[in-house]
Every structure is written in C-alpha cells, then in structure tokens.
Amino acid sequence: MTPKFQNSSCFKNYWEKGNGKELLDWANIKPNPQTFQKLSPLYHQIDDLGDLLVQETYLKLPYTEASALIKKYSEHSISENETVQENVKNFFLQMQKTPDWFDVNLANVGARFCMRTGANGLIILRDFTLMGGYDFAYLNKPLIFTGALKKGAVKRLKDTLEFWIRVTRENALTINSEAYQLIVRTRLMHSYARLKIKEKTTWNFQNWGEPINSWDMIATYTGFSLVFMQGLKKLGIEISSEEEKGVFHLWKYIGYLLGIPPQFLPENRQYAVEQFYWWTTIQEQGDEDSAHLAKALLQENLDNTIYNYAFQRKMLLRLHQSMNWHLLDEEINQRLQIPKPHKAFSIFPKIVRKGNLVSQKIYLRNFQQYQKLVEMGSLQQLKVLDDYIKHTPKDFNY
Q1: Boundaries of each ER-bound oxygenase mpaB/mpaB'/Rubber oxygenase catalytic domain copy (predicted)?
Q2: Are 368 and 376 in contact (CB under 8 A)?
Q3: The pTM is what?
C-alpha cells in the first residue's frame, strides 16, 4: 500500500490549514513515512478471535442459544478447563487477561476527565467526532452496507451514547462488569457485521481494506481520545498532562478489549496524530453517502421525542448546527451539506466556551471542587442517556 490522497486538495486543506494543522501544531511533530509502512498492514487485519466466535455461535446455533452462551461467559469468568468450544474459550480468555501495562489508576484519571466534561463532552462526541468522521468516505462504508440510513439515527445515537458513557465511568472495566459485557456485545456485533458484509455484498477490499479493519478501528477510537480532547479545547476545557495521559490509557485498554492489537494503540498525542495523519492518506473525502449520514444525524434532532414541542426540537437542531460550524472546517461542513446557522445561533459556542472558562476557575482550584465537577458532569451525562433510553422507540429493527 501507498498513500493515495496525500496530494488531494481536501487532505492538504485539512492538514495545512484546518483542524489537522491544529493537531500537528499541538503534537509538534513531522509525520514519518516509515510509520505508514508499519501501520498499513492493519488495513487488512481483523479481529480473528471475534470472527471465529461468531462463526461458532451466532452463525451456527439458534439465536437464543448463542446469546445465552455469550451472556453466560460475559457475566461469569471462563476457566482454562471449561468444557466449551475452543473458539469460545480463546475469545473470553483473551478478554479476561488483564495486560501487564494496564494501570487502573491512570485509566480512572481518564474516566474522571470524561465525566467532568459533562454536556460539553456529549456535544463534542456528536458534533465534532461523529459528524466529522462522516467526512471519511471509506470509513463509513460498513454503516452504509449494513443499512444504517434505513434504520435511522435515533437508535444508533443512543447505542453510541450508551457505550461511551458506560465505559468511561471510574472502575467500570472490571471483568464481567456491565461495561465489560457491553464491550463483548459491541465486539461481536462488529464481527457479525463484518462476516455478513463479506458474505452478502460486493466489498471493495483494495480501497476499503477489510470491513471494520484494525486501522479503521484505531482511527475510530482515536476519535474518542485525541479528537475528543481537541474538540473540548475548542470549547475552553482545560486538560492537564495527567488527564491527557489518562484518556489515552483508558481508550488503549478499551481498544484492547475490543480486539485491536494493543501495540498499535496510541498512548500520547504525538503517536495518535501521526497515526491519524497516515490513516487519512488512504481515506477518500466525504461523498454522497457521507452527506446522507450527516443529514440523518441532523434529522435525529427532529425525530427524537425527548422534547415535546416542535419548536424545541428545531432550536436544538440549530444549536447543533452552530456547533458543527464552530468545530469543523468550513470545507467539511459544506461537503456534508450542513446548513450554516443563523447569526442568532452562531453565538452559542462562544457562550458555552465563556461559561466553561468561568466555571473552571471555580471548580479546578482544589481536589474537592474537582470531584464536585466530576460528579455534576457525570450526572448530566447519565441524565441525557436516561432520556435517550426512554425515548428511543422499542420497535427499531437494528
């Protein structure tokens, strides 16, 4: 493989003028071409353990029987001597093995940071990380091939929100915990989708790599660490060096649990930016599918029933659009066909930033105040998740 789009105008604009330049300046690095050669095999690498387990269970057994088996070993640890299919045993033994490099205290530092961001964190995840990710055309092909557009954005957003909140609480990732079980289900969902895509579609392996491949997965979870923190900085959120290390460490462990080779998962902004840079050299700019996904995410504001009145939903839509235009490069907003907000709404991100700068002067003075900010932020996030759980239609075919 060789970089394909390094000379394209959209690549150059992003890395020489836009958010990519901001990342390079923050990391203070010059990407090394040798890194591309080291990482490019990941584009055709997949989670073999997950795929073998799905083939052994969901593709062979009745659904209820397969689900019961997965539930059993998600809730209770498996042993080396267990009398069960080898692929089942290998999968869960890998997940149960805590790597020597994992530092639970450092991961909790990252979790507390995620919690203290409160609603700011959820805004960044939606309006910067998720929406910005739609501009990478090849990354989104699995969503298109699994019918995400037909199923709507409400359920998909609720699932993403639930995953992020559950795995970013303190001490959430202990073996057999609720978050651990959710990671098991997510990992197997990826494998099931990959196997079905390869079985039922004409997949462009040369351009798109394997469906849901390891390099795409690393880029996705870099969105939850590197890009997440970049977006928060745009909203005035201060990040200590220890918090930054904690966020990367937390997502390295989550990535490991999801079957990503841990030696490639970044632990600092320098390696994360370099990885992201080279990954974007093989990603085509946003296409028609990207614009449809962006439209569906915006439409979710109007489809969701958390707010009772249409005018409230329309106002929420305008506020999210104002965040899109504040956070994303203008060229990306235009490519994704996100309407430019009215001037009355464009001031919203500035108000949020100002509020964050003021509140941090109060709550970042000492540990007690910091803990209070963590508790308040976590409650905000859990309240939003509770609203989504209550208002996501139960009859979604997903």
Answers
A1: 139-341
A2: no
A3: 0.95
